[in-house]
């Protein structure tokens, strides 16, 4: 027979489930059946949840209720039913209140907003990695930003930084003699961003890259100033045809460049708090 645990939450229950799973991971041989009760925000719903938990032969009730009256109602009902009850958040809320002098807002669902913010960042990062360097062009319609630039202009670092802010970025390399995927023309103009860099700085970056690969930059057209200047000129012409917002990444910290782009495109970073 599994150990039955009643799980009571005033929102979606995802946070309570995650905390319970973390605890149960320390008991790998324990057979547990979880009976969830979600959106429990009144004393009446608490009593109903405890009654059903008792009927399910629950041996323990855990909760993440944040409103004092609802939490106390759960304690009373659980005591009457003879079932131990544990409030997962109360010790931390109490400690924070004691050391800060502030009072918790007791607002159900606040943790869900934190979860949504976190998962938005994870989703953006997964998308950006999948769409790095021109890959997965069929996913372009899902992008918040489509970033164009020549090789080593800083597209990937900027894309990953923006993804960590919850912004899905597809980056498209502009290669000599190679037309970008025709689907880029279907991307809304306001999502198109071009990234330029000075020819001299790009030459330094490409030369360093070739040295790391054990190659001689002096013998590689990839790092020649003439080739680079031509690439940047052609890239700028294409960006202008695409009506991209164009930014210069030369010696600019990625954080400042990302903030400028987010501001210009009205893209807000999801907040955990």
Automatic annotation (TrEMBL):
One of its GO terms (molecular function) is protein serine/threonine kinase activity. The keyword Repressor does not apply. It holds the Pfam family Kinase-PPPase. Keywords: Kinase, Nucleotide-binding, Serine/threonine-protein kinase, Transferase. It comes from the Bacteria. InterPro entries: Kinase-pyrophosphorylase (IPR005177). This is Pyruvate, phosphate dikinase regulatory protein. It comes from Jonquetella anthropi DSM 22815.
């Amino acid at each position: 027979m599994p150990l039955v645990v009643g799980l009571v939450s005033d929102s979606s229950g995802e946070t309570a489930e995650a905390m319970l799973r973390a605890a149960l991971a320390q008991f790998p041989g324990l057979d547990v059946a979880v009976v969830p009760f979600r959106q429990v925000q009144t004393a009446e719903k608490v009593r109903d949840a405890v009654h059903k938990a008792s009927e399910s032969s629950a041996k323990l009730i855990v909760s993440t209720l944040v409103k004092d009256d609802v939490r106390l109602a759960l304690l009373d009902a659980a005591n009457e039913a003879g079932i131990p009850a544990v409030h997962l958040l109360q010790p931390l809320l109490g400690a924070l209140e004691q050391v800060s002098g502030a009072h918790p807002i007791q607002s159900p669902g606040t943790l869900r907003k934190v979860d949504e913010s976190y998962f938005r960042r994870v989703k953006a990062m997964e998308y950006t990695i999948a769409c790095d360097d021109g890959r997965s062009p069929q996913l372009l319609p899902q992008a918040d930003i489509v970033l164009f630039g020549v090789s080593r202009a800083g597209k990937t670092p900027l894309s990953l930084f923006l993804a960590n802010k919850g912004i899905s970025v597809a980056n498209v390399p502009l290669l000599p003699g190679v037309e970008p995927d025709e689907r880029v023309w279907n991307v809304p103009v306001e999502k198109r961003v071009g990234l330029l860099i000075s020819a001299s700085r790009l030459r330094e970056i490409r030369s360093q890259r070739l040295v790391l690969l054990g190659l001689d930059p002096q013998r590689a057209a990839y790092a020649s100033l003439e080739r680079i200047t031509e690439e940047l000129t052609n890239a700028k012409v294409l960006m202008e045809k695409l009506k991209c917002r164009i930014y210069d990444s030369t010696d600019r910290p990625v954080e400042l460049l990302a903030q400028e782009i987010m501001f210009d495109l009205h893209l807000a970073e999801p907040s955990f708090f």
